[in-house]
Amino acid sequence: MALAPHAVHRLYEYRKSLSTKPFGARGKKLIRCHLCLLGEQFCTCSLRKQLTTQASFMLIMYNDEVLKPTNSGRLIADLIPDTHAFLWSRTEPAPELLALLASSDYQPFLVFPAQYADQGQTVLTEVPMASLAEGKRPLLIMLDGSWREAIKMFRKSTYLQGLPMLSFDPDTLATYALRKGSHDFQLGTAEVASLALAAMGEEVNAKALTAWFDLFVESSLLGRNRRCREDILPISDFTDAFEAAYSAATPAKL
């Protein structure tokens, strides 16, 4: 049975309703699935599954980021049931966004590089699950946009600047070939989310999200004819890898 549309799907439809003309993505002649935004031939919607996790995510997306087929933030919502998504506004943040940050159900953590932390702002490399107040879930906040846009969102959003910051220094470069930021070490949003899950102690869920990301990247490149013939692997290699990672995550007791 197909899963219901999630928060990013709904935000996509809302943002599209505000547009006066169609979004001009690369490969705009490609016939795309309206949910995963991949070419219909490589649609992954039938493979989508939900993970069992203690994590909640909040995606704060810059303007037209949600319209981009290359956006990997939607992959988080594909797998993590409690994912929330909002358009960023400098002057009028969504009341629902602010309510989530103030909710007694959540402990927010801003996932962002430590070099941008304000003086006195707490910086962590792991989510302190054992010390969270009883009944609270970690709410992992992702600023989803280009590198410059993410910095702008952080600097101009006072409601983010006092939050504990979760930061990483990955040993490996991003494999994200669809969109590369101004820093060589910049990772795709879903890749950073995988690191955040691992920082909570949910390594098996992190691997499942990474495998879902890999399938997304390969499906997107194939749909846009961006793979050299000698580099093409059967797409089943990637679907099988995700199924195996999901199976490994399913019995995990969190």
TrEMBL record:
One of its GO terms (biological process) is tRNA processing. Keywords: S-adenosyl-L-methionine, Transferase, tRNA processing. Residues 29-225 form the DTW domain. GO terms for molecular function: tRNA-uridine aminocarboxypropyltransferase activity. It is an enzyme of class 2 (transferase). It comes from Shewanella sp. (strain MR-7). InterPro entries: DTW (IPR005636), DTWD2/TAPT (IPR039262). This is tRNA-uridine aminocarboxypropyltransferase. Its EC number is 2.5.1.25. The lineage of its organism: Bacteria, Pseudomonadati, Pseudomonadota, Gammaproteobacteria, Alteromonadales. Signal peptide: none annotated.
